[in-house]
Amino acid sequence: MKQDEKQQALNELSHRLAQPFQQITQILQPFAKSMERIKNNFPPQPFLPLGGLIGHIGASLHAAKIEAEKEFDELTLDNCLKIREFVKQYEQRRAGGRATGEQRTQEAQVRHKTVLDKWEELGIMPKRGRAQKIAELTGYDVTTVRKILRKAGLK
């Protein structure tokens, strides 16, 4: 009876671990293929004296290093091209931002000059209602007009 319970517990455990093992296998599959290629380059020898064994291990490691460097070089070349594209896009965005910033600065200067000119034109009108009237005449928002007047020290 205990043997059946053990078997049942093992079956349940293997059923629960099947999906995680499958995920791990999928993740490690490319690594296993690389190791298989390296292993095929250096078939095992039946007997190696200690010096030969160390030489064989060194040769295997050297071959693995060379293969890894090849893969890294290929990967690096592709990434370098992508980095160049990203840098180019960044520079274009930055230049566009500068141009837009200069344009907005010029527009703000024109807006300030217009609001201040209208303030002077409406000099006979009481200060309390001038900001609203300027906003109506220019089409700017009232808060924008008030901010401009505050910066100029008129409100």
Task: Describe this structure as you would to a colleague.
With 155 residues, the protein is mostly helical. It has four helices and no strands. The longest helix has 72 residues, at 50-121. The chain starts with a helix and ends with a helix. The relative contact order is 0.04.
Brief rundown of the structure:
With 155 residues, this protein is mostly helical.
How are the secondary structure elements laid out?
Elements (H helix, E strand, L loop, with lengths): L1 H40 L8 H72 L5 H12 L3 H11 L3
Helix pairs in contact: 1-2, 2-3, 3-4
Features of this protein?
155 residues; 4 helices; mainly alpha
The residue fraction in helices comes out at: over 70%
Q: Based on DSSP secondary structure assignment, what is the total number of beta strands?
A: 0
Oligomer: single chain
N- to C-terminal distance = 95 Å
Main sheet characteristics: none
| Individual helix count | 4
Mean pLDDT: 75
Structural class determined from secondary elements: mainly alpha
